[in-house]
Amino acid sequence: xxxxxxxxxxxxxxxxxxxxxxxxxxxxxxxxxxxxxxxxxxxxxxxxxxxxxxxxxxxxxxxxxxxxxxxxxxxxxxxxxxxxxxxxxxxxxxxxxxxxxxxxxxxxxxxxxxxxxxxxxxxxx
Length: 125
Fold this sequence. Notes:
Low-confidence stretches: 9-25
Strand content: 35-45%
Strand order of the largest sheet: 1-2-3-5-4
Largest sheet: 5 strands, mixed, barrel
Radius of gyration: 17 Å
Number of strands: 5
Structural class: alpha+beta
Order of helices and strands: HEEEHEHE
Mean pLDDT: 81
């Protein structure tokens, strides 16, 4: 019984550290209040329960997934952009406190952050 508890504890710690590692590997760095953002190429996914998701390559060859906050263009074209490759200049922000964010983005973000679209590069807007 004690051995099983130790195994469970080790697995739990490893899972927690893996989650922290994923957050640390985030290509866009820490949340910032101001900045020029970073150009990221990824695939947009519109999901009814999880909100707008953006998959993009991050460090060590992994694919990261982040909540994407809808701007005016995305609100008008989210259906036609679903599953398409996009090139965006984005900034990582606090999904629950940034005035550009939404309550839905706050609720669907796993780490409390989301990407704000600063510029559409492809498709060009």
